[in-house]
Amino acid sequence: MTRSTVLLAVTLLAGLAAASGWRSATPQSAPPDRLRIATWNLEWLIAPEDFRALARDCVPRDASPGPRRRFIPCNVAAEHERSTADFRALERYARLLDADVIALQEVDGERAARRVFPNHDFCFTQREGVQNNGFAIRRGLVHRCGEDWSTLSLGGRVRSGAELILFPGSAQEMRLLSVHLKSGCPRRPLDDPRDACETLSRQVPELERWIDTQATAGRRYAILGDFNHDLLMTRGPARNDQGQLRNFWAEIDDGEPAGARLINVAAGQPFVNCSAGQNYSSYIDHVVLGESLAEWRVPGSFVRLTYETRDALQRKLSDHCPVGVDLAPARSGATSAEVQP
Questions:
Q1: 200 vs 320: CA distance, rounded Å
Q2: Which of 149, 183, 198, 324 is deepest in the core (most CB within 10 A)?
Q3: Does domain 3-327 sit in CATH 3.60.10.10?
Q4: How far is CA 305 from CA 32, 63, 94, 272, in A?
Q5: Is 25 within 8 Å of 17 (Cβ atoms)?
Q6: What is the DSSP string of 82-107?
Q7: Cα torsion at 101, 42, 68, 179 (round to 10°)?
Q8: 19 to each of 12, 195, 260, 319, how far by Cα in Å?
């Protein structure tokens, strides 16, 4: 039996799924033996027909879009239109990733996402703009789209979080949050006076509130996405002497309430750029597991999918590439030491 076939098995019967409004193409009674979750920022992924319409009315640099909610900057219109070959290349990398659930960022919505993930269902935030957070979920996995975590948007200034409930109502239920946080403060402490760091520091308590909500409820959970910040870099206390937030990771990984300890799956892993032409030095895309979900992590299963040099040069892919990890939810209660790769 192939891995893909095994992973189509899910936790609830078809009748229960239909009656509850949960989505699944072919639900089965057995839980999956292995589940790959990942995150991928797809950099202005917009369906070609929608892209062309937006490009005709693009917004020049430093100009105001006015009342329009759906628009693209003119530099994006000039540089990021994707061809059929570009979409095919992205779809090929999606197949190589072979993930069951992918947190997506910078995606216009289902019509664009389906060109890369033709065998998946989707959950996206309800933002009117063309950059949304969401999830691609392999067909056959019982799931429910959660409500947007809108407080993360700081009143609409930045992006909301997208919530996904996998295997709802079962012993394997888990909640996932896809995030795309404020850019511009990747390696500076959050008390840096730059506007980007100040905005990011305001998002952190809202992210922590989601974590604490899941921990208090005794749920298994994870946060996946483009954090636009190196969570593995900063050291020291969460706050400075004046009480200002300084250390992102120390703030969210405070262990309060019980169950709020976090595991970054990239911890201890060497950093690898997406392609030979990049010169970044650390991860800003992360998969962060709550401690109870981390019990299901398969040892040695960290995933970093990179692009072939030829594709990176000839195709419009993305300036990000996937990060992921495998879980073994079928063995409820198994510890990470008991689960074998």
A1: 20
A2: 324
A3: yes
A4: 23, 37, 9, 9
A5: no
A6: PPHHHHHHHHHHHHHHT-SEEEEEEE
A7: 50
A8: 11, 48, 33, 42
pTM of the predicted model as reported, rounded to 2 decimal places: 0.89
How far CA 229 is from CA of 182, 249, 280, in Å, comes to 9, 10, 12
CB–CB of 259/215 below 8 Å?
yes
Residue with tokens 């992102």: 248
What percentage of residues in the chain have a pLDDT greater than 90?
Answer: 83
Are the beta carbons of 73 and 58 closer than 8 angstroms? yes
Contact by Cβ (8 Å): 146, 213: no
- Domain borders along the chain are 3-327
pLDDT above 70 covers a percentage of the chain that reads 87
Burial zone of 310 (CB within 10 Å; 0-12 exposed, 13-18 middle, 19+ buried): exposed
Q: Supply 42's token pair.
A: 């797809």
Mean pLDDT value across residues 12-27: 40
What's the token pair of residue 237? 């206390």
Neighbours of 84 (CB within 10 A): 9
Token pair in block for residue 49: 């027909």
